Amino acid sequence: MPLIRSTSKQAFKKNIATEVKTGRPVKQAVAIAYSEQRAAGKRKKSSAQEHSAHNSEMASAYEKSVAHTRQDLNPARKSRGIK
User: Fold this and answer.
1) What 3-state class would DSSP assign to 66?
2) Which one of 43, 46, 55, 79 is at 20 to 30 Å from 12 when CA atoms are compared?
3) Does 78 map to a domain?
4) How does DSSP assign 11-48, residue by residue?
């Protein structure tokens, strides 16, 4: 029987029960259930929320780089008032 990929406590308990019924030791069944729970949590984070956070970081990095290039670093131009 396939295991349930979910972060809920109920799914965790069912996964342990399933593994114990198939003859695995309890400690190994718990380890497998934790592994499934961890995998389910990672999958949830890799959705649109992670992509939007990445896009926000990239946008702020771009703005910083553009602001740096916009600054006039030539002192001669600054003294003449040229922008």
Assistant:
1) helix
2) 46
3) no
4) HHHHHHHHHHHTT--HHHHHHHHHHHHHHHHHHHHTSH
